[in-house]
Amino acid sequence: RKEVEQDPGPFNVPEGATVAFNCTYSNSASQSFFWYRQDCRKEPKLLMSVYSSGNEDGRFTAQLNRASQYISLLIRDSKLSDSATYLCVVNPTDKLIFGTGTRLQVFP
Amino acid sequence: DAGITQSPRYKITETGRQVTLMCHQTWSHSYMFWYRQDLGHGLRLIYYSAAADITDKGEVPDGYVVSRSKTENFPLTLESATRSQTSVYFCASSVPSKHFSYEQYFGPGTRLTVT
């Protein structure tokens, strides 16, 4: 079993839609959680950290469920510019583990 | 503000050749990392460095060598390139403390093809 698992997608959604991604992790000792965004043929960039209480940044909401060991990312009112691959990242001990990413394609 | 740069951006080399990928950052971040990214795998850590002259192995270090004589530079060398090392290589850096709990800043990547 992979340490971090994501549905690879692609998720094809129209502009304005709400879309949610889930990610599961295997190491219950994980302490830190992140969502990174990676555009095609570009480097990953931090989208947001994920806190135990859940957090929101504009149209983006991240949730953490430690009991079930999953993280979610909700994107509301999708924009064309949201098209990218979203990487779930977990910090179990002394390293970051990256998921393979979920690809989102927003169409007009 | 250049941030973190990598060179070359694209490289084609032959099996058995030595190749060095360069990484330079202008933020004075003490931690630096090398990852490779392949289809079907997430980013995988090759080596990392906590400070000048301090390096440590990551998940997939075999076939690679690193050095860090200066804080701002962290070159990655493939001593004898193999086709399995064809990949996209990303260098990253992060703030000094809690290096794995804080944001990592990535360079633009080097696309390496080994023929």
Briefly say what this structure is:
The complex is a heterodimer of chains A (108) and B (115). By secondary structure, chain A is an all-beta fold.
Write the layout of secondary structure elements.
The complex is a heterodimer of chains A (108) and B (115).
Chain A: E1 4-6, E2 11-14, E3 19-25, E4 32-38, E5 44-50, E6 55-57, E7 60-65, E8 70-75, E9 84-91, E10 97-98, E11 102-107
Parallel strand pairs in A: 2-11
Antiparallel strand pairs in A: 1-3, 3-8, 4-5, 4-9, 6-7, 7-8, 9-10, 9-11
Chain B: E1 4-7, E2 10-13, E3 19-25, E4 31-37, E5 44-51, E6 54-57, E7 64-66, E8 76-78, E9 87-94, E10 104-106, E11 110-114
List keywords for this structure.
A: 108 residues; mainly beta; six-stranded mixed β-sheet; five-stranded antiparallel β-sheet; B: 115 residues; four-stranded antiparallel β-sheet
Walk me through this protein's architecture.
Chain A contains no helices and eleven strands. Chain A is an all-beta fold. In chain A, a hairpin with a 5-residue loop joins β9 and β10. Chain A is globular, with a radius of gyration of 13 Å. Chain B has 115 residues and is an all-beta fold. Helices cover 0% and strands 49% of the residues of chain B. The chains are: A mainly beta (108), B mainly beta (115). At the A-B interface, β5 and β10 of A face β5 of B.
Mean pLDDT of chain B: 92
Indicate the structural class of chain B: mainly beta
What's the story with the biggest beta sheet of chain B?
Answer: 7 strands, mixed
Tell me what portion of residues of chain B adopts beta-strand conformation: over 45%
Count the beta strands of chain B: 11
Give the low-pLDDT segments of chain A.
none
Let me know the average pLDDT of chain A: 93
Oligomer: heterodimer
Estimate percent helicity of chain A. Answer: under 10%
Pattern of helices and strands of chain B:
EEEEEEEEEEE
Q: What global shape of chain B is seen?
A: globular
| General shape of chain A | globular
Q: Please give the largest β-sheet of chain A.
A: 6 strands, mixed
